[in-house]
Amino acid sequence: MTDITFANLQDLNPIAYINGSGQLPEEFQGKVGVYAIFDGADLLQYIGYSRDVFLSLKQHLIRQPEKCVAVKVQTIDRPSRTALDEICQAWIEAANQSDLATIHKDSVWTQSIDVKTQLTDEEQAKVANAIDDLEKSMILKKACRRVEAIILDVLKARGLETEIRFNPKLKESGLLDLK
Predict the structure, then answer these.
(1) What is the pLDDT along the chain (179 residues), one digit of tens a residue?
(2) How far apart (Å, rounded) are the C-alpha atoms in residues 116 and 133?
(3) Does one domain contain both 80 and 150?
(4) Are residues 89 and 148 in the same domain?
């Protein structure tokens, strides 16, 4: 056990994921901390920690745009992995949601979006019949732009004004993530 003091999850006030000006909570830019993400029904969806909470929140928003409605954050001035893990574990236990332990590790929150799992039948056929890797990467890149447009439309409908830039190099392999 570390000697770090932290707030109980239920004692923290939720912060809108996207504020009235369409911005993400910029006060967490460059801050190390633990955070809990809630959906529109105030159900806990994810608990994690990061060296830059703002950047992680932005990543989660593009990966799970419908589930990122509010967030509770505990920043730490002198972090250690042990302290961050302890806070996460305490919050998971306090949440009393049996499936949260798996949500904490769920790859849909932490890994790049694999567009190959979202290909249309037509796109799948084109990939299967591609004559070489260049043609295949062009098809995947086009599919990534389609999925990217859907994500950006959802975020725009939610009022997001923060700039979102996807990594163009990843698109060639059918992945979407922020630059």
Answers:
(1) 455 678 888 899 999 999 999 999 999 999 999 999 999 988 889 999 999 999 999 999 999 999 999 999 999 988 788 989 889 888 888 876 655 545 556 788 999 999 999 999 999 999 999 999 999 999 999 999 999 999 999 999 999 999 999 999 999 999 999 98
(2) 15
(3) no
(4) no
Q: How many residues does the chain have?
A: 179
Q: Is residue 132 part of a domain?
A: yes
pTM of structure: 0.89
Number of structural domains (the chain) is: 2
Residues 37/45, Cβ–Cβ less than 8 Å: yes
Burial code (b: 16+ CB inside 10 Å, e: under 16) for 66-90 equals ebbbbbbbbebeebeeebbebbbee
CATH number for the domain including 52? 3.40.1440
73 shares its domain with 140: no
How many other β-carbons are positioned within 10 Å of the β-carbon of residue 60?
23
